[in-house]
């Protein structure tokens, strides 16, 4: 085709959701999650298009430009949302790729819907990509898109990036129609993962399931070479730094600290409310520290901000109930009038508010049971221009491979969580500063722009960001 976009990003969600305000007016709000946080600045700078869903059922919104990004909505019906998004994507693939933190459910009609919706994404992309364009497909909701797109448009350069962990070989083998999923990914020229082991697992599976002969970081498939490598994702460091440097952020941080009780030390968790994030275990460990009088309600306070996520999926509703019950129990047992140990906010907050919270924090708690990367950990580090603040970080995050100056922890072990929380609270200011300085140097040298450049370079496309 003569016109069209020379750079197209394809992800299940657009960077903004279509919502309706209290007056019935349609508006766009930022979509949740790390994928959008990372990609939004890249696409805005490159002038590319973004193919994705608006987050609302049966939404027939046409193409629109929002905040400098060309949106190309792909509509999903209520049944698509039920089967493709909440079903196959978030009740089968998500738990299986996160090491079975919850048991995956397998249903034939979900797989069929997943295939049909992936085809629609491929068709929508084929319709807007210019001749020879670079197309970058994202995440586990769209594993089949690369091959479908290549069949429609062999002229394109196709990259794929998986934001979540890729499972060990034996776990992937449990998936029905596993060969189709692998062939789907092999439609790309370059398949990117968060960690080198994930790329190795993928290549090994092409041998085991498809009988291919992978080399070091590539495999030949249908006379093409497909490269599989790690590209650890990051954040827009400059944006977080700009917010953190603003007088408003510092004022808000001071206000928060005063409101939470002056000299109490603040522990903070910021996550989507997801069972992979280890929120329950974190709250439980904090409760035990209070019960054992290792810390007291006068000395410490925990703020847990949890964004509502996938709330129609039963496992997420159950998690919400369990967390809220535990928070209520701890506050009931250890709180006083006007002073509770756990502040739990089941809300999404603006970037400015999150940065103010990061700045007010003594100990950041990032304790997922499994996480592809975890951008909150990098945001916290990027915000701490004062080189203060300690972080407890799960070994089972991609971020731990880069930020090993955090207090690393096994989040499945409540005793270890307690040990790490106390160690972080007790660390000397010099120790905290030395750790933070090293972590900041790493994050500053590896921001999201660096990530995108590395990926697009490896894909062999000119970089406009
Ligand atoms: P995931 O992609 O699994 O949600 P990440 O930690 O990689 O996890 O990314 C989460 C992103 O969502 C970060 O950019 C973080 O700032 C943002 N976020 C997390 N919790 C909230 C919240 N309560 N309100 C607003 N943004 C949030
Ligand atoms: C993670 C996933 C993304 C997803 C985000 C939010 O970051 O890797 O693909 O968009 O969570 O989840 P949601 O289901 O609301 O899109």
As residue ranges, the low-confidence spans are none
Bound molecules: adenosine-5'-diphosphate, 6-O-phosphono-alpha-D-glucopyranose
Radius of gyration: 22 Å
Name the shape in a single word.
Answer: globular
Beta fraction:
15-25%
Overall pLDDT score:
96
What's the tally of helices?
Answer: 16
Classification by helices and strands: alpha/beta
Name given to the CATH architecture of the largest domain: 3-Layer(aba) Sandwich
Q: Could you give the count of β-strands?
A: 17
Helical fraction equals 40-55%
Account of the protein in words:
This protein has 465 residues and is an alpha/beta fold. It folds into two domains: 5-233 and 449-459, Glycogen Phosphorylase B (Rossmann fold, 3-Layer(aba) Sandwich); 237-445, Glycogen Phosphorylase B (Rossmann fold). The protein is 45% helix and 20% strand. The chain has 16 helices and 17 strands. The protein has helices spanning 34-46, 78-97, 108-128, 145-152, 169-172, 178-185, 196-210, 237-245, 247-261, 279-291, 314-334, 351-360, 375-383, 414-426, 429-445, 448-459; strands at residues 5-13, 16-20, 26-30, 49-53, 64-66, 69-73, 129-138, 157-161, 190-193, 218-221, 224-230, 265-272, 300-307, 342-345, 363-366, 390-394, 407-409. The strands form three sheets. The chain has a nine-stranded mixed sheet with strand order 5-6-4-1-7-8-9-11-10, with helices on both faces. Strand 7 (129-138), helix 4 and strand 8 form a beta-alpha-beta unit. Helix 2 packs across helix 3 and helix 3 packs across helix 4 (145-152). It is globular, with a radius of gyration of 22 Å. The two termini are 24 Å apart. Adenosine-5'-diphosphate (ADP) binds at residues 32-34, 37, 270-272, 305, 307, 348-349, 354, 373-376, 379.
